[in-house]
Design a protein that fits this description.
alpha+beta; 4-stranded mixed β-sheet; 12 helices; about 10% strand
C-alpha cells in the first residue's frame, strides 16, 4: 500500500570496501574472474585509457563493484583501460554486490556536462558559451577541428577544467562577445575573439565592433561581409560550426591583410574540396 515502510535487510558480512591502487597485473587478475558481464565498448576503453596516460585520472570516489561470485558488476571498462594504458589507478573496490543490483547501476544519475565542471571551478555565469569556447580552443590547439566529431577527439570534462585554468582570459572573451550572441554562436565567437586577441588585439576589437555596429563599415570590409554571412547562414551554421570557423578564419586573414572582399564560402566536400584555412595573423 502507498506509504508503507519497506523493511531494510541486514547487510551481508561478505560486503566490504577497500581503497586500492590497481596496477595492470592486478586489473588482469580481476578481469580473469569476470565470467558474466555486458559486452565491452572498445571506444570507451580507449577513451578512459587516454585519460590515464595523459595524467588526468583522478580518485573521485567512484567504485569498482565486485559480485558475490567474483564477477565485475561495474568497472570492467576502467580495468581494461588500466591494462591498455599500462599504468596503475587508485579507486574504491566494493565486494559482495548482488548480481540483481546491476539493473540499478547508472540509471538515475545525470551525467555532468562541461558547464557543470566550470561551475565547480568557480564560474558563476556564461558557463555554456565558455565551455563551448574552450572546447573549440582545445580542438584548434590539438589540430583536431576538422575531425572534431570523431570519438577519439572527444573533449573531456578534465580537458575543459585544465584549459579553464590555463586560459583565464577566456572569461573576458565570452563577456566581450556576449552582446552579439544573436549574430552567431556566442561560444564560437568567444573562441575566435580569444585567439585573435592573443595575436592582434586591435584586429580582435575591430572584429567585435563590426559585429556590434556595422553602420559605418564599408560593404566590402571582410568583417562586414563576415557579419552578412553569419546573419544569412544561421541555419546552416547551427548544423555545422566547422563552416562558421573556416569562413571566420578566411575573413580574419583578409582583414589582417587589409583586403576588400565580396563574399565568403568554404566547401570541404564535392569534386574540389578546400583545405581548412590556416589562421595567418
Amino acid at each position: 500500500m502507498p506509504g508503507a515502510v519497506i523493511p531494510m535487510k541486514k547487510p551481508r558480512k561478505a560486503r566490504r570496501v577497500e581503497t586500492m591502487v590497481i596496477d595492470p597485473e592486478r586489473a588482469l587478475s580481476l578481469l580473469e574472474m569476470n565470467k558474466q558481464n555486458r559486452p565491452l565498448s572498445h571506444p570507451l576503453i580507449a577513451r578512459i585509457a587516454r585519460q590515464i596516460t595523459a595524467g588526468l585520472w583522478r580518485f573521485n570516489g567512484d567504485t569498482i563493484k565486485m559480485g558475490e561470485s567474483g564477477d565485475i558488476i561495474d568497472g570492467q571498462h576502467r580495468l581494461w583501460a588500466c591494462v591498455e594504458a599500462g599504468q596503475p589507478i587508485e579507486t574504491l573496490v566494493v565486494y559482495g554486490v548482488a548480481r540483481d543490483a546491476f539493473s540499478t547501476i547508472d540509471t538515475l544519475g545525470k551525467q555532468r556536462s562541461t558547464s557543470d565542471t566550470l561551475h565547480t571551478n568557480g564560474l558563476t555565469r556564461y558557463r555554456v558559451p565558455t565551455s563551448t569556447a574552450l572546447s573549440w580552443l582545445i580542438r584548434w590547439q590539438r589540430d583536431r577541428i576538422e575531425s572534431w566529431k570523431a570519438p577519439i577527439n572527444r573533449v573531456e570534462n578534465s580537458d575543459i577544467e585544465a584549459a579553464f585554468v590555463e586560459n583565464p582570459g577566456i572569461e573576458r572573451a565570452v563577456e566581450r562577445v556576449y552582446p552579439v550572441r544573436t549574430v552567431a554562436n556566442c561560444g564560437v565567437l568567444a573562441f575566435l575573439y580569444y585567439i585573435l586577441t592573443n595575436r592582434d588585439e586591435d584586429l580582435a576589437e575591430r572584429f567585435v565592433e563590426t559585429l556590434l555596429n556595422p553602420a559605418r563599415v564599408a560593404l566590402n570590409d571582410p568583417f562586414y561581409v563576415l557579419r552578412t554571412f553569419y546573419m544569412g547562414e544561421r541555419d546552416q551554421r547551427r548544423r555545422n560550426p566547422l563552416i562558421t570557423i573556416a569562413v571566420s578564419f578566411k575573413a580574419i586573414n583578409a582583414a589582417a591583410k587589409k583586403k576588400k572582399v565580396g563574399a565568403f564560402s568554404w566547401k570541404n566536400q564535392g569534386a574540389n574540396p578546400e583545405k581548412f584555412p590556416v589562421l595567418d595573423v
